[in-house]
Records
---
Amino acid sequence: MKLSEVTWFKIRKIRSYFMISLCFLALLIGLIPLISILAEVVINGISQLNIGFLTQEIAPLGQSGGGIGPAIMGTLFVIFLASLIGIPIGVFSGIFLAEYPESRMAFTAGFLNDVLSNMPSIVIGIFAWILIVVYTGWSVIAGGFALGIMMIPLITRATEESIKIVPSTVKEASLALGITHWRTTLIVTVPTAKRGIITGILLAIARVAGETAPLLLTILGSRFFLTSLFEPTAALPLTIFNSSQSPFISIDWPKAWGASLVLIFLVLFLNIIVRLLTKEKF
Amino acid sequence: MEEQVSVFPEDYPEKKRKKIILKGEISGDSFFKSFLGIMTILIFIIMGLLILTLVLRSLLSIETYGFGFLWGTMWNPTPADPNASPEFGVLPPLLGTLVTSLIAILIGFPISMGIALALSEFTSKRINFWGSFLVELLAAIPSVIYGLWGIFTLIPFLRGFIYPVIQNVFFFLPFFQGTDNGYNVFTGGIILAIMIIPTITAISRDIFAAVPDSQREAIIALGATKWESTKVIRRYGRSGVIGAVILGLGRAIGETMAVTMVIGNSFHLFDSLFDPSYTLASLIANEFTEASSPEVYLSALIETGLVLLILALVVNITARLIIRHTTRKFRGVETF
């Protein structure tokens, strides 16, 4: 049977609509887990939230009561320490990559940076264990070190990208006034790229705040509030993991959901701020 | 020079002026560059130390087991017989990592392509922006929450509705056999698929968006339908998309917590996708903190980390090289 031109065109049209709807179906399928996760976390977690839950010490597995106070404190501390390592190294090396892109070192560093950003997080945990935990024991410092290393490539890349899009006319205007290159970088280029750099830092913090695997090998977990930098501590992701592994489902799982709600709130909050910061570009 | 307002007193010697100007300003440039350079060299040092320390720490295990470590199937740190020496081999978790990642790609790739095409070709800019935002939020959710959701929602759903169907349809295939409680290799693959969708989607979308409009216009002018016009776009961005997929593979290989929570954590060579198993990362996550003695146990776990590191390095470097190559090609086309 030979199809006429018109029928053939109709078939192609129908196939086109069919494939396009498949694409939108894929979009839908991709969004289902997101909606399901957010809904589960909010529905199961919201009933847990009260002042006591947010501030009390963590109860042992199987005991009701208690809260996630030490975990919140631990997460904030670890992020703070990680920022001390990640932000300066990330921002300055990012400036280097953007300002001296022609050098061979910048090229290689950019490449290594990409590789580092995709390093399995548990391997970085082992690295921090070998370098620090072996000498100090399980400690917040080691956790901060591991997460700090994970932050570096993210911040470097964001800084580099945002400095590269600063118009060269702006820099040239400054250079033409007789201001040297390094001053131009510090008082003109970096402030112009400020928003992109802050965005990168916030995203990096959001990313490492939820990391569990490296913390498992460095800060170990604890039920109590932190008193020194050289002792094991709790962190939100670790608490979620421990509670989810508990055999006492009815007691510990709701706590895991409560902690998840706090963590996801922190992470999504940072992401939404970032989206709003970058929205004006479009 | 005479008109210039000087900050120096009238009687200040000329020689010193030059020195101060040079020190303070011009040499500031080279100082600044070296300072930034040192910060950048730290990245080299971190990568170097990372590999070096892992190799040093796993030397004991490498010397004891040699290459047999890679295809050994026994993991026995404390043998019941006191005279027997402990045995270590990572073939089962290595296979676990490879198989879960492969399942993740097989499921995640078509979905990611669909999303990337839908967002870049078939929607308005506004929907593209917010759709991308939502898909990238998936990447922002911490993996431990994926794991919790996996235990609580995904596993009951798969066990109740999906797995019985698969087992009834493919009852004759050996790797779909076995009873199952939902904690298995297949579930690990599915949760990884969800986690790599944002990675593959984001890069593919950027690549499709970078295809010059002249290409789209050309094929539409030839009478192609909307779908047929994506053919040229997919073909144009093919190598970039391959890079994106390999990058997704790298993410799947390195992912730890979500998989650890749903894969069942059992050390044996699985012969069905519905068997519980281990991945390299979940083996380390499960046993590292308890591996105090014997000494070779810890060394073997660190060597497991080294195997994971090498696997991730190879996959990621391949992906980066492909992506770099593609973006260069695109740049060449745009200046055309």
---
Amino acid sequence: MTITEASETRALAFHTIDAATHDLISAAKSAYATPETGFNEYKTAAFVQEQLQALGFVVETGIARTGMKAVLRGSQPGPTIAVLAELDALRVPSHPGADPETGAAHACGHHAQIGSLLGVATALSTPKIKNSLHGNVAFIITPAEEFIEIQNRLALKNAGELEFLSGKQEMIRLGTFYDIDMAMMVHTSAGNGSASLSVGGSTNAHVSHQVRYIGKSAHAGGAPDQGINALQAAMLANSAINAQRETFRESDVVRVHGIISNGGSSVNAIPSEVLYEGRVRAKSVEVIAPIAERIVRCYRAGALAMGASVEVQSVAGYHALRQDPIIQNIFVANAELIFGRDSIDIVPDSQTNGGSTDMGDLSMIMPVIHPYINSASGVGHGNDYIVTDYDRAVVAPAKIMTATIIEMLANGAQKATETLDKSNPPMTADEYVSVQRGRFTTEVYNPS
Amino acid sequence: MAERANLKSSFSSEINKRSDELERIARDILDHPESGYKEFRTAKLVADWFMDSGFDVQAGIAKTGVIATLNTGRPGPHIAIMGELDSLIVPGHPHADSVTNAAHACGHHAQIGSMLTVASGLVETSVKDGLAGRISFMATPAEEYIELEYRESLLANGEIEFFGGKQEFIKLGLFDDVDIAMLTHTGGETAGTIGVGGSNNGMIGKTVQYIGKAAHAGGSPHLGVNALNAAHLGLAAIHAQRETFRDSDTVRVHPIITNGGSVVNSVPADVRIETYVRASNVPAILNTSEKVDRAFRAGALATGAEVRITTNPGYLPAKYDDRLSEIYRHNAASLIGDDNVIQLNHSSGCTDMGDVSQIVPTIQPTANATSGNGHGIDYIVDNYDLAVIKSGKAMGMTVIDLLADNGEKGRKVSGSFNAPMAISEYLARMRGFRSDVTYSK
């Protein structure tokens, strides 16, 4: 394909997406209107399935409960690039778009990803464009990116429905990515400054702690001396955790934060069982390890102080995000066609965002990119996080991803092949699965 | 009866002749306060006074203790009349020593005055000849359980074994043949009254050392282990135990930080805490001590520091003798009127008179002759007539009741006393409280 042919193909793609703008934005808004938390996204999944089937795709459904996969084959064999969209919402009951019953709300803008994935699928399904591809494109719709409702997910794990607690993790385990060579998705953001798009950088790894304090109940007024207060134990642990903060190095981007998910049953009984859910994040799984050890020490200290016992269940969380420079460069070049050079913020690899994504896990086994499109207002995960610019949130990412794929799979998939040759993922999918399994541990500490 | 009344009358008139001198001695001690096991000047003053008054005197007992003995020459009970030599350390007290900050913010100087008052009346031949038995005037060091590091150094040097002066007296065998003991403390209840009866908490003392790792607090705090954070968490963990303390046990745990770090730009690596664990009974002291140790250990565990917990025997709970109290009450009432003798409640404070009370029938009435808060900068004895003279008279008249008629009443009080423990058991128990454990990872 000559340069002229390539720009003609891209122009056709942009034209196709522009023509579908109304439908794509409607699709995103439709997902926004049915917010569902991770592994429960049945309505959203059914909707996306319908849309893909309408484009002529054969859709594999029910992967990790609600995940899906549809593959578009190019005219020639070649690498397979995945475009990802996340199905799940958060739970923010006071969000204007919250489901009044469940409190689920798209306070992280995943619904926009649905729209942009459908945009890519629409454009690439055009016969002329599809024929230009020397390779394949997989549309992978992933459940449960938000690492929440851990107790519910652990129940699903115990019931044998899941092994890992996020969508992409579970899909890696199930082999959904065995035939995928590289992946991309675009996430919304409320941005900083005037940049329209932010690419590059890393995100934190994390581990979740499910901490159960067992004390002894007693009448809180009549016989407090007979009780062992599990809530005091948890609160002391929380204070102890705070006392560790001066030992955290800025360069490690440590975040430690917890919630008390059960703080006692009735106020006139000494709490005998308290659940604390903690999260430890830092710039890599390796950096987390010694910090998590300190945090576990704090959990134990709470138990020791009160004479309670504590069970600490560590739940394998996410890995840090590694973004591929070649895909990123192509993505940026195509983004410049839409936003101009000055409106694109290129974050250095060394800069780690405090948050986490299971795109990081996928980046352990293949080259990926995970840019952010500045199209929302408010605070991410807050009740004021609203996608305000749907053209930018849905249409622009669809165009840039489509153009990036066209370029990568053109000319015998030269760029995609180069990407694969130069990429050096830290582990294979099988190694990843084994590492994650090793991160699930349970210890019981009973000092008395 | 008439005989006793005569004895008491001679006793009183003898004291009246010397009341100015006795009050002056108390005020002199007030102006020269010395903390426990350092009361050298006070001890010399007491020893000199007794020698000048013709008593047999032993000095330098348990460093600074003094005993003066009055022997009637007739067999009978042995009574200890006691006074405490030591002061507190209260910077800002109007009578504080400008160098040491020692201050009589607990009124012990008045106790010496009342003890000497008893001695000046009983030594009079017409009184002494009416009595049988012996009276030992014991000026005891170190009732206040303070300056634990200093006392630990005395312990390490073999100069003392126990931190309370009366405990040392017991250990040295000075209570082996004592039948009855009494001491009058000042108090701040309704002015002009004397309190009788009551009881006191017992206690143990702890010194705690957190050992962390120093590092530049700005440049490399991640390389340090913060002993102050460990201590802070240990203290917070102690507070979280409080809801488990039973009202009836009157538990008190009140730590201080004696070393909280050396310089602010270095992560503190050595932090020291002193605390008491007090309660009304020994099982509650031991139970609380276990909780406190657990809490201190948690601070170390959380931060990765080490903690060394040294526990020293403190004082035993005090229970004052009912029969002896009744005799005393009668005498006090004869001096200040029935309505002015009040019944004391349980006090959550502690005294080494508690230890004495576990061995012999004991009373520690209070002369309510002060204003301000006990141990505070405003604690002042403002009624010396009550604190020194009347207090001495009430004790001395009680001695007369006990030792007159061949010591018949004294024998009764002593004979009906059911000692909670023998001296050998007492010593074994006190030594059993002692522990020194370092907890590390």
